[in-house]
Write the structure tokens for this entry.
Amino acid sequence: MPLGIRIFLVYFLFVGLAGWFVLSTVMDEIRPGVRQSTEETLVDTANLLAEILRDEVKAGSLQQSRLPALLQAYGQRQPKAQIWGVEKTQVNHRIYVTDAKGMVLLDSTGAAVGQDYSRWNDVLLTLRGEYGARSTKEDPNDPDSSVMYVAAPIKDGERIIGVVSVAKPNRTLQPYIERSEQRLAWLGGGLIVLGLLVGALLSWWLSGALRKLTRYAQAVSAGQRAELPSVRGGELAQLAEAIERMRTELEGKAYVERYVHTLTHELKSPLAAIRGAAELLDSEMPTAQRQRFVANIEQESARMQQLIERLLHLAQVEQRQGLEEQVAVPLRALVESLLQAQMARIAAAGLQIENTIGAQLSACGEAFLLRQALANLLDNALDFTPSGGLIRFSAQALGGQVELCLFNQGEAIPDYALARLSERFYSLPRPGNGRKSTGLGLNFVEEVMQLHGGTLHIGNVAGGVEARLRLPASSGN
């Protein structure tokens, strides 16, 4: 299972369980919380009424006062109040008053007047001087029919002369409880989903950064050119830098070792030829033969120098991870300068040169590397084009790229060699002298193309061979 999924599952489990626990705990506290708040309001109301009713109860004139009519009018009121989205259309308090013996003197419903309420907890406890409250079901079979009763003593000095009780059905609180539970459920669910989204984004970001580093390490281990990925975060950035330093150290050691072996192997042949010619020059020989051996030494020395220079150029390109500059390079002017530099060789072979590249076409890249790459291709074309043959440069824009083609007349490349042309140290014999080159030129061109994000393709066409380079086009094309 991928690391990102495992991180998300652990986060999901933690956030889900924590969210469910908190949400269920808060849900369980809503109902008692609302009832506690209601009870506190009933306590205030009962004590206020106790003060209002004190004089009438003391004088025994409660029934003759205006209070029965007021309570009746109170029960008929229709508030039409909007309370947090719930409409209240009637009053729900029941109020009754008892004397010091618990006999009901006044009842807002008119149903209990004259009854003995002395055994109900709200009256009984209040007459004892304690806090009197009770919750009683109107229907024993209906758990939602409970009514909350809160009483307050009516006092004459320190003597309790009666009790006033205020009741409120719990059923009237249910809409507010349900609304609070619904809103809390939506809010809690939204927070849990938001937390999971944050966890998913965190897992995706972390696993994405690790995937970048993994792909980079795999590319480096496969010997491919790879750019250090950009990752944010202290530890991840440090890990990326550590991998890059390790890559640099390991590549440097392996690179030096590989090139030492390569250079040693490639220098054996010209050194052996030079040494053999030098030994023969110590003996007596005709002047013509001596000149031939001296020319052989000069030729092999030039070959060694060319090999070393091309190896150095190739090493510089292979070690680079990116371009030092990206500028617009006019292709026609670049090709013209290369042809001008080779004009003596072109004239000596009587070659026909065509440059049909449009003046407006430009590639985007590093001018120095592109010049070296095209110079290597032109060298190859000059080596394999017979006297009087044709070399033609052309180019065209292809979307965001530009394709440059170099055609030269000559024999077709053998099928077995086509796939190996850009292989290091692989070379075909030159038609003129049968000798092979260093085999590094086309490998250098391919490395330059990879640095530019382009491609190199060499193949046989009618009448000769064509090399095609595809490069990013400059914005001006």
Q: What stands out?
A: The mean pLDDT is 80. The chain has three domains: 3-178, 225-321, 322-477.
